[in-house]
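$ ./design --mode recover --in tokens.txt
reading tokens...
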């Protein structure tokens, strides 16, 4: 079924967009107003990039504390490499492209102009079994991780206690003589 449904049939034609020179504060306000997680950056009908919630959060955490967010433009923090798709492509092709590049949204391009926007959510509406099969995989993975943690706990590799770095109560792993949670272990 998913081979017969085309991207152009399900794409959003009235997507939220902004000018690449907009500041990130205005972008965040526009995302909230339109209840979306990203904005297409375009000049005229030409695609210039995509700014997502993650891009804005990155700017908030990585820029200096005294930085004026009204002076940071969308194009400074936006995703530079934008993957696109054509309206005649199938939903299966769109899904494969999204999985390959680990993205959740793509502009739809025709004759070098952006004509629409497709998200993973749009695809799941038409092919819900994708979501169901992924949920089943997640359940299996979760059970496997529980068994693994249990086996490690029996061997004394993991313990459940406050982390020696951050103090959070979690399952800890012995790293360089210290009991650390997953987050602190990843930061090392």
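writing sequence...
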């Amino acid at each position: 079924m998913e081979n017969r449904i085309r991207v152009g049939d399900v794409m959003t034609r009235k997507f939220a967009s902004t000018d690449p020179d907009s500041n990130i504060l205005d972008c965040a306000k526009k995302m909230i107003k339109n209840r979306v997680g990203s904005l297409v950056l375009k000049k005229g009908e030409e695609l210039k990039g995509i700014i997502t919630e993650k891009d804005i959060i990155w700017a908030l955490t990585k820029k200096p504390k005294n930085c004026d967010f009204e002076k940071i433009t969308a194009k400074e923090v936006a995703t530079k490499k934008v993957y696109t798709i054509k309206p005649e492509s199938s939903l299966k092709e769109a899904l494969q492209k999204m999985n390959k590049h680990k993205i959740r949204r793509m502009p739809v391009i025709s004759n070098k102009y952006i004509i629409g926007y497709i998200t993973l959510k749009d695809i799941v509406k038409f092919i819900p079994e994708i979501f169901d099969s992924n949920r089943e995989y997640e359940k299996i993975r979760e059970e496997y991780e529980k068994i693994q943690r249990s086996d490690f706990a029996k061997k004394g590799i993991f313990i459940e206690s406050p982390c020696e770095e951050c103090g959070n109560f979690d399952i800890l792993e012995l790293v360089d003589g210290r009991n650390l949670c997953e987050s602190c272990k990843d930061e090392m």
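exit 0
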